[in-house]
């Protein structure tokens, strides 16, 4: 499996519009972060987790020219805002895109993209097949087994996903022990760590590190990062040996 981090930033991205902090002014590539998303190449299949507003740019930058399925973590626009650009894959592959999501996310998606789901839709809209999933059982996405993991983003249920020994969790600040058990044994864990200060709906860096220590993966990566966390090089120097800050363009071969 090859994992490509397409974006590792929070909803505002880094740099953030109008901000002149040292992180937003940094010229280092690792301090520049598009909205969070990853691409998985698994058994000759191409799968994306989330399609945020930077989706088009991310596909072009990573050279991704085919897509078999999209897994949606939740319905917030920084994770769904690029759905219209799925059209390019419809045109190229001459087929609808399979999208896997829970019922809450489907409701939000139908509100955000009403024109996609009309009875007589406008020509040229994205063509998608919605597949309803829940945290209660694994599912197959284009022949790949996926284990969904329910986490909470304040009060909103969000899905993390485990494929083989790789687990991806974003936009969480609480995970029940029964769901943590699904993560145990992962070789690689990716989890959100927004900043060092407390936040109503995201793990802080310390909270993410504590969860990593409890689960015990071989390697762990922090994603969904705010400019408030600090510069990549400075924060990296503070981390345990098996934990790294993810950055846009990072590639893992598992």
Question: Can you walk me through this structure?
Answer:
It is globular, with a radius of gyration of 17 Å. The chain is of the alpha/beta class and 254 residues long. The chain has helices at 55-62, 77-80, 87-93, 103-112, 177-183, 205-215, 232-236, and strands at residues 2-7, 37-42, 45-49, 69-71, 97-101, 128-132, 139-141, 144-153, 156-163, 166-169, 188-192, 219-223, 243-245, 251-253. Helices cover 20% and strands 28% of the residues. Strand 7 (139-141) and strand 8 (144-153) form a beta hairpin.
Provide tags for this entry.
254 residues; alpha/beta; seven-stranded mixed sheet; 7 helices; 20% helix; globular
The chain-level mean pLDDT equals 98
Instruction: Note poorly predicted spans.
Output: none
Could you tell me the radius of gyration in angstroms? 17 Å
User: What is the count of helical runs?
Assistant: 7
Helix content: 10-25%
Ends apart, CA distance between termini: 5 Å
Helix and strand pattern: EEEHEHHEHEEEEEHEHEHEE
Q: Can you count the beta strands?
A: 14
Strand content: 25-35%
> Main beta sheet, described?
7 strands, mixed
Give the structural class. Answer: alpha/beta
């Amino acid at each position: 499996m090859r994992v490509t981090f397409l974006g590792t930033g929070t909803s505002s991205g880094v740099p953030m519009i109008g901000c002149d902090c040292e992180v937003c002014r940094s010229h280092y590539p690792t301090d520049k972060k598009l909205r969070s998303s990853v691409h998985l190449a698994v058994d000759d299949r191409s799968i994306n987790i989330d399609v945020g507003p930077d989706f088009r740019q991310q596909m072009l930058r990573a050279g991704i020219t085919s897509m078999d399925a999209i897994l949606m973590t939740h319905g917030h626009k920084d994770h769904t805002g690029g759905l219209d650009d799925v059209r390019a894959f419809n045109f190229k592959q001459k087929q609808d895109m399979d999208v896997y999501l829970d019922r809450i996310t489907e409701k939000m998606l139908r509100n955000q993209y009403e024109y996609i789901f009309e009875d007589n839709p406008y020509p040229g809209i994205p063509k998608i097949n919605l597949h309803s999933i829940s945290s209660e059982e694994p599912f197959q996405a284009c022949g790949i087994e996926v284990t969904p993991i329910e986490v909470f983003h304040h009060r909103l249920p969000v899905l993390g996903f485990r494929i083989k020994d790789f687990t991806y969790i974003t936009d969480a600040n609480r995970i029940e022990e029964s769901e943590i058990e699904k993560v145990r044994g992962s070789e690689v864990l990716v989890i959100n760590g927004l900043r060092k200060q407390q936040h109503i709906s995201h793990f802080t860096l310390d909270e993410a590190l504590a969860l990593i220590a409890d689960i015990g993966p071989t390697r762990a990566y922090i994603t969904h990062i705010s400019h408030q966390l600090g510069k990549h090089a400075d924060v990296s120097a503070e981390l345990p040996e098996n934990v790294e800050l993810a950055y846009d363009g990072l590639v893992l071969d598992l």
